Amino acid sequence: MQPFGPCVGPYGAATIPACDPHRAGHAGGVQVIDPQDIADELIVAERERKAIGQFSEQDPDFDLDTAYRAQQAFVQSKLDAGERLVGYKLGLTSRNKQVAMGVDSPLYGRVTSGMICGYGEPVQLDRFIHPRVESEIAFLLARDVEPPATVISVLAATDVIFGAVDILDSRYEGFKFALTDVVADNASAGGFYLGPIARRPDEVADLRLIGCVVRVSGDVVMTAASAAVMGHPAASVAWLANQLAAEGEGLKAGQLVFSGGVTAPVPVETGGSVTFEFDGLGSIEVAGV
Ligand code: OOG
Ligand code: MG
Fold this sequence. Notes:
By secondary structure, the protein is α+β, with helices and mostly antiparallel strands. It is built from seven helices and 13 strands. The longest helix has 17 residues, at 64-80. It binds 2-oxoadipic acid and magnesium ion.
């Protein structure tokens, strides 16, 4: 695995549109919380692999706008260190995931080049706090996705799809968070694998019916179909495109979008192996070392 190594693949370089992470949420004209301060704590937690308490519990005024600004500042620190923005990840787009995490609305995070892991490489557990893995469908875009985006327009803008694995590593103790906390924590993004087979959308009979079987050390522990993600994984990408457009950002050609967990997350353990078998898109084995 090369979790902090060079980006693989031709994902277009990008920077996050200018924003001032110090512009905090305001209550009655009083500055209540600074997104950069939140980002700084998350940066240290990630670097030192030491989980922290939830911001939402310390400050009831911590709102979603501030949380996304904190996320931008958190991700900007990676770009400043030489990584590139390669795309986005969706989170909590399936009931499986919302129930597992106790949060009931979707969110997005940003994917940078250092998060992309080489196929077949193990998860080095000493790089993470408490990693968990889950199956996803990833979209590589051939064209920009213009708002208002729909399932059809996302499919028209898609080059290929992959089976994928999202390595989650919440920077919060016990993987416990409110929506604002997890947004600031870049949707728990830790690492990503792409499966070995890329298919154009028109090569897949029905994008809602891509089955996924999850095995832990050989035993089947979960099964699901891709419709678990908002009824259709492209619906989740459309939601993201519309969300980004409302914020002055957009999905661009060359970007990679991880559309959200199809199955609930499974912990990765030393010596353990989690295998994800995707119907028509190959298998990804994730071993913990
Ligand atoms: C938050 C990120 C959720 C997904 O696919 O639902 C996510 C978490 O569960 O830690 O990546
Ligand atoms: Mg995920």
